[in-house]
Specification:
It is a single chain. The protein is mostly helical. It has one domain. 76% of the residues lie in helices and 0% in strands.
């Protein structure tokens, strides 16, 4: 009887050890994929931003950026769950993904001003982000006394999420007054998605910048990037006021229609 119990205990412990090793192997594999996807996000995003709009290289790198960002978001949330010290990446990943997803989707609904209706995927993305943003605000309030840094991250990114959702819902319900609304949304959100990816890279590799606190690593990319984005949008807007038509051959994609 005693021997039987020992045998059962042995096999039980062996199974536990096997599961732990398997779990570690899977997590290591996912970490490798995460690093690869994150690197691909930054590379493709940089190419898309610096390449001429409408060209094949811009459209191709933009697609790669979107799908790489999607994979990075899923793995970032997964990593945050298994490694609690990275929990603050969850709101950054989710809201940054919404910016990229809606910035990519806007190319499919470029004629809302002419009566085009948003598709189901657009409503799901926007309403889902709206609810998620309110949840982040609630969590930020609940964590004010426990973790002020986390609350700041939650408030900051939930504000971005709510701002984007309000704009999208307005465009879905009311006809946009500016027929080039899609261009400005596309530039703004895809660029912000790239900034978010760069921010995550800097914070994750903060050991490379021991002279800078994490808060600054969160602020520097957006502090530098936002003025550049605003300048680019202002420049496009200035040109649009001088011309009746914008000569940018943007080829629509049918990815979400399949």
């Amino acid at each position: 009887m005693h021997t039987s119990i020992q045998i059962e205990k042995y096999f039980f412990l062996t199974d536990i050890q096997f599961l732990l090793k398997s779990t570690m192997t899977i997590l290591e594999f996912l970490k490798f994929i995460h690093i690869f996807a994150g690197s691909l996000t930054l590379l493709s995003g940089f190419i898309a931003i610096t390449s001429k709009k409408g060209r094949t290289i811009h459209r191709l790198s933009g697609k790669v950026f979107f799908w790489a960002m999607t994979l990075t978001t899923v793995l970032a949330v997964n990593a945050s769950i298994f490694k609690p010290k990275f929990y603050f990446f969850i709101p950054i990943a989710i809201i940054s993904f919404y910016q990229v997803a809606s910035g990519y989707r806007i190319l499919f609904i470029k004629t809302l001003h002419k009566g085009q209706s948003p598709q189901i995927v657009d409503w799901v993305l926007t309403l889902g982000m709206l609810v998620t943003s309110f949840v982040f605000v609630f969590l930020g309030i609940m964590n004010l006394e426990k973790d002020i840094f986390y609350s700041i991250v939650l408030f900051s990114f939930s504000t971005i999420g709510l701002y984007c959702c309000i704009i999208d819902l307005y465009n879905y319900i009311q006809k946009p007054k500016n027929k080039f609304y899609w261009l400005f949304i596309h530039i703004f959100r895809m660029s912000h998605g790239f900034i978010a990816g760069l921010t995550a890279f800097l914070v994750t590799n903060s050991k490379l910048f021991p002279f800078l606190p994490q808060v600054l690593l969160l602020i520097i990319p957006i502090a530098i990037g936002q003025p550049i984005i605003s300048l680019v949008i202002w420049n496009y807007n200035r040109k649009l006021k001088k011309t009746k038509h914008l000569e940018i051959p943007v080829k629509l994609d049918s990815t979400f229609d399949k």
